[in-house]
Specification:
Shape of chain B: globular
Structural class of chain B: alpha/beta
CATH architecture of the largest domain in chain A: 2-Layer Sandwich
Radius of gyration of chain A: 23 Å
Strand content of chain B: 15-25%
Largest interface: A-B, 36 and 34 residues
CATH class of the largest domain in chain A: Alpha Beta
Number of strands of chain B: 23
Structural class of chain A: alpha+beta
Strand order of the largest sheet of chain A: 1-2-5-4-13
Strand content of chain A: 15-25%
Distance between the termini of chain B: 48 Å
Largest sheet of chain A: 5 strands, antiparallel
Oligomer: heterodimer
CATH superfamily of the largest domain in chain B: FAD/NAD(P)-binding domain
Number of domains of chain A: 4
Chain lengths: ~525, ~600
Amino acid sequence: MQWKSNFERQSEEEEIKAHGLTLDFDEIARRGAMSKEEKLIGKWYGVYASRHPGQHMARVVIPGGVISTTQARNIAGVAERHGQGRLNLTTRQAIQFHWLKVGALPDLFRELAEDGNTTFHGCGDVVRAVTACPMAESCPYKRLNVRPWAIRTQKALNDSRDLDNLPRKFKITFSGCPAACAQPYMNCVGHIAVQRGSECGFKVVIGGGMGWEAYVAQELFSFVPEARIIQVTRAIALLYRDHGDRFNRQKSRLKFVVARLGIEACRQKILAYLQQEGADTAGLSWTPFEESGRPFPDRPLALDSTVGTDGRGIVRVMIHQGELDHRPFRALAELADIYGDQKLYTTNRQNIEIHGLEPAKIPEVEHAVHTLGFETDGFYTLRDMVACVGTTYCPKAVATTRDLHALLQAVVRKPEFAAIQKQAIINITGCPNSCSPYRIADLGFRGMRIREETGSVEGFECTLGGDQQKHGQKLGEFKTPDIPEVVHHVLTTFIHLRTPAETLTRTVNRVGIAPFQKAVFS
Amino acid sequence: MNYPYCKATNPTEYSVVEGLGETAKDQKTLAKDIPCQAACPAKTDVPGYIEQIARGDLDAAYRINQECNVFPGVLGRICTRPCEDACRHHWTNTNGPVQICHLKRSSADHLSRPPTALPGWFPKTGKRIAVIGGGPAGLTAARELIRYGHAVTLFERRTTLGGMMLDGIPRFRLPLPTIKAEIALIVSSGIDVRTGECIDAARLTELEADYDAVVVATGTTLPRPLELDRPTASPPLPAGSIIPGLDFMKAYNDGQVTGLKGDVVVIGGGFTAVDCARSCARAAKRLLGDGGEVSIMYRRTEHHMAAELEELEEIRLENIQVRTLVTPLGLVTENGALSGVRFIRNKVQETASTGKPAILPIEGSEFVQPCHTLIVAIGQEQDRSLLPAGLTAGEGQKTNRPKIFFAGEFLTGSSDVIHAVAQGKAVASEIDRVLMGVERKKNHVTIEQMRHMGDGETGRQRAHDLQSPAPMPLTDIPGRARDNAEVEQGFTKEGIPVAATRCYLCHYKYSIDNDLCIHCDWCIEVAPRACIKKVSRLCTDADGFIQDYVETDVSAKATFIHIDSDACIRCGKCLRVCPVGAITMRKASLTPCLANPS
């Protein structure tokens, strides 16, 4: 390869980006392979190399986590034609194809576009898909419906060509209430709908993130009027564009900017950006206030089929390990067409929801879903585990997360743990990038290799007692075959120590990690 | 707390994470990691000063050299550069080693402030030491002994200090002002200099009685004799027909050789032979090619000549003939004057051994090389006439008399300035240890965590390695003939950065803590070349020094992820990408530690 010798203090990626962010995929398809530079810029088109040589991943952007059934059928068709029929749901409500040849990419883009789907800005140093609560419209605790804001914010920022070249990725999420189901505290920008007196708006937190160095987002504004939220988000993106580290990509993300500059300085800069853009900053507040919305439980989404505040039913579909075939995906779309609102909703726990059902039809739809081979209960419980794709597809992964997923299913489904199903969730991630945010789960696993006398074997670091605002503590490092036993000890200890309504995280926070360590290591 | 898994011990290349490494392992790792410094007889901190040059602080670079090798300006011109042979660029790179020597000279050429004498290490001890010989070894010993707190008297037979630097090396390679400035710097530290004082055996015995210690560093001053047949019963040849190489150099440097007539033959293949030939060419104004020939006649091949390839090229440009594989047999005279030298051709007999190949004469291949002046430069030997009867060399630099020490070429035989400097430093340390009863100054391996360079940044990129270095600017041929001008002009300020940024900065050490490493291999992916390896086994010697490893490409067989310092370019990308903070950047250096310093 050619080594450039201008010796500027910037990453190689920045140097490549400076030469342009556009690719001719027909040309690439004719050539049959992507150069190193094209592989980087390919991310702007949502294309990523897969772990399997010659295979690529493409990520369909799903703003707000909702697609029409037409779009769903389109995605299923593309998967069938180009991606060995397989679909993967991500923890940011997107859908991925993992078995793509370079030659298929241009046709794939064109075919997706026929029904308004796109992979553009699915990856790369851009504003990524904006996520939202899956039950944004009908959750009993919602302060306001955040889904339209998520979709509009996504459109506004993705259409801004001055935000095409950020230092790294930029992730935004909208949560309908302070229960924070949309994970605002671990996104670059988290918008949390709040109620101040009779007025609803957003609390804005920034600088959260998982990855190899995790940060909890800090409060930027305690209250932003609903109508200002897109402008405020854009101002945050501008701050990031101008202050993110362009030399060290590992320290580029907004969380490092906030940690480096401090939240106060960030706020001043953001206010200045708002002024520069001619935006009205009048309603913005950063003084704390008593939130006056309806009290909410720890995990509002820890329920199965339900009827929302709009009087319409919801059936949830648990997707095993987040991967499904195009045929059942089409069948789910058909169910939504026949019984629901002709939309499919994706969740950040890699599941799918069908909304807008006649409450009376719920059992019928559930039965249909069961026939397809999916469960419709157990959400936000021990068995609703989230595993990233791990070494099954991801070139970055260190461990086979799906193997652990399968091993642990057998443990958590034991009758002795029936009573605590809703008291803990498990996230498994294959590498420190934490695509499955292991630090915020009651039980978290992060892939690693553990060395032996000679050689090394797969294992996981286990963390205990995490939530979005207080990350889990390290329990230890274990080889994969030992982990079922470890989890068994942890859950048994939890049963002994818990108070009736307590989650595992609350118990760990109350009694500390020591009793669990003792149980595991003695 | 962990499951009690059986794990291979976490390997470490230095015995400490930070602080002083005092084990043999530390010394060995340092020597492996910084091969230039290990190769330097005076253990010059090469990456240390090149890093300063790359940052633009030439004064600091000069000070490092002044501390390590005493004569930066001199050695920057005429050092035999064992460091460059050891340079890691030399292993793989087609662009040759880092121009360490030229860079040293640059630091002396472009000083912003005149250098000052180095401070002492210890208060006055009241001990008095005599150093005999004002050459590089004697001067170095004197400077170091002063810094130990001893009083030093330096005796020199000639009227000026400098020894071989002054007499043995032509001014067009080493100008007089450079030598004088650096000697003055040493003398200014408080040495009592006695020039014009010739020490004989009787005087040496007196000194032995008067002083606490005596260093004999009088070098090699006697020419090694060459036995040549001469026509029987011929009258003696006119004076000046056959000249020993060193005598010729001395005369040339003193301006006593102005014109040479006819053909000159220089016998020998060492530095002196080449210097003599180049000086002859100038003395005879043969640079431009008029009249007779200057020839170097050497019995082995060019490969075994001391001169570097670059210098051989210059020799040819200066119209000097180089004939190799020839052995002189006898002299040919005509009318009582020298007219030629009879040579026989040799052939090389390759052997399986790695030493110098054997040379076999080819029968019947004799020929006569026209010659009117013969310079014999086949080496020098020690003049031992100043030693009192019964005085013999002992262990190391000691002798069989407790107060007398040998140093420099007088001890080692014909060598070069950098070895003489190393000898001077060593004898000073040895004398101090003997006089004071303890080792008051010791070199330790210091390991420093480079936390202030938090992102592991040295500023280096792979492209720095692959730069084409600038050649040393040279005086053109007519210019060399005119006024005996210095041939190498030194880098301009603009030429320095390319040369300096090529240096791998081997004193920085990136290593992986395998207790933290999770084998994600991300560092291997971003590595600019095959510098980070999956390793199933590390091979250590009895001291725990990691001397080799068994590489694997199978994750299950990878016990460790290992950064191979031999291939590391010190870009720090691995440190920045490591998701678990397992990679640290440290700096390893050889630093003096003083016991009870002043």
